[in-house]
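Case study 2.
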Amino acid sequence: MDAAVDKVRVVMADVGSRIGRIRDIQQRSQSDMLTIKSRISRIEDTDIAEAAIELQQAQIVYQAALSSASKGMQTSLVDFLR
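Prediction:
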């Protein structure tokens, strides 16, 4: 009889442990869903016109940086050849 009671206790402890893990997984899943919903909302709420303007400004800055670096390299190369 004692052996059967011990076995039931072991099984109950195992079930309790599994329930705890399932609850942890549920909480993480809910947290992940909130994060995903927040990211989707941010993407969907993006103002397309504003994003296009920001992209164009970034491209202008990039082109200016390339042009500046190119001019600096040409001057150095000419100076080196003299």
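Residues 4 and 66 are 79 Å apart (CA to CA).
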